[in-house]
């Protein structure tokens, strides 16, 4: 009898998990188009398929690169950036934030371990601000969807925002702010990945069976992850291009001046999905009249305010530090958009 009462619950949970997957959303969206506008279905599918095929080469290279970094243990190089003088730490933390091959669950125990080892909050803030903005897969996917100038601009904005935030926090701390920034936190992260600076990367990972297995596992996991989110992103872009009036987009975030950039940053905070879905959607918005500066502002603000990024900060520090993180992130997004628009 116990089994009979539990099975329906398990079945419901499995069904709910299935419904929430990007694949299910893709099927539902295409089915809705087939029912409500059957004549436009081939155009929507063709648009999404061509865009996904174009980005496929970037996906493959990004997955190979990320799997290699994971298999070699290259993340220990990031931990070493938090050693030495504070100014040097801020610069290296901002730089490595865009290169670190960490998933969102790994960032929390990694940073918690660094703070426990005495790393200054200024360097940690530099890493926090730059890390959500760019990583190797995001750089390549952004280049595939929006072009290399935009991708490079985002990478520069990530490092610049990290430097700005790091030195701003350093200045505030010298004036007495953030004397005790941390919550009571004991690292028990899901990945168990605190920093181990005495380890060394093994670049020839294929010589060790465990690292070869790690490479295969990461390749399959990250490949499927990127494929499903980008497939959904391009289906949404196809809907955007076909059904959302260009005048509506142009009226909200088009035109010259600072106002569209500010609006894009404020809209990007609650509307952001993740760094893999955003580039294709922004490509569609820019075709509809969104300016390049507004697109940059939207992307930067959205990455800083994404749920994994905010969770990493909120779980470790007190509310005033969290508020400083969001203020620096959104302010930096607006500045990045203005500069990118001018350039």
From TrEMBL:
Keywords: Cell membrane, Membrane, Transmembrane, Transmembrane helix
Any Pfam family: ArsP_1
Protein's membrane topology: Multi-pass membrane protein
InterPro entries membership: DUF318 (IPR005524), UPF0718 (IPR052923)
TM ranges: 21-39, 51-69, 90-119, 139-164, 219-236, 248-273, 294-316, 322-342
Annotated localization: Cell membrane
Main location: membrane
Family the entry assigns: Belongs to the UPF0718 family.
Name assigned to this protein: Permease
Source organism per UniProt: Ruegeria atlantica
């Amino acid at each position: 009898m116990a089994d009979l009462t539990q099975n329906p619950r398990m079945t419901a949970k499995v069904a709910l998990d299935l419904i929430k997957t990007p694949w299910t959303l893709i099927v539902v969206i295409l089915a809705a188009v087939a029912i409500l506008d059957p004549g436009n279905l081939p155009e929507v599918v063709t648009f999404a398929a061509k865009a996904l095929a174009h980005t496929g080469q970037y996906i493959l290279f990004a997955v190979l690169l990320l799997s290699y970094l994971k298999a070699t243990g290259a993340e220990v190089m990031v931990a070493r950036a938090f050693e030495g003088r504070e100014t040097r730490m801020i610069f290296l933390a901002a730089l490595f934030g865009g290169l670190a091959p960490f998933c969102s669950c790994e960032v929390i125990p990694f940073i918690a371990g660094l703070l426990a080892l005495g790393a200054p909050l200024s360097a940690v803030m530099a890493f926090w601000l730059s890390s959500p903005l760019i990583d190797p897969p995001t750089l390549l996917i952004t280049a595939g969807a929006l072009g290399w100038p935009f991708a490079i601009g985002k990478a520069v904005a990530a490092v610049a925002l990290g430097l700005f935030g790091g030195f701003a926090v350093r200045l505030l701390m010298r004036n007495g702010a953030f004397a005790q920034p941390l919550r009571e936190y004991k690292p028990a992260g899901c990945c168990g990945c605190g920093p181990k600076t005495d380890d060394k990367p093994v670049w020839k990972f294929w010589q060790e069976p465990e690292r070869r297995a790690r490479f295969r596992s990461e390749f399959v996991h990250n490949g499927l992850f990127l494929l499903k989110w980008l497939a959904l992103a391009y289906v949404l872009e196809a809907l955007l291009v076909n059904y959302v009036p260009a005048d509506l987009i142009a009226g909200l975030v088009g035109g010259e001046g600072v106002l569209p950039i500010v609006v894009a940053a404020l809209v990007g905070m609650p509307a952001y999905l993740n760094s893999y879905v955003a580039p294709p959607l922004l490509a569609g918005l820019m075709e509809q009249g969104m300016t390049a500066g507004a697109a940059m502002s939207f992307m930067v603000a959205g990455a800083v305010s994404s749920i994994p990024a905010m969770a990493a900060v909120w779980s470790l520090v007190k509310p005033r530090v969290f508020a400083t993180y969001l203020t620096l992130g959104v302010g930096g997004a607006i500045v990045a958009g203005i500069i990118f628009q001018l350039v």
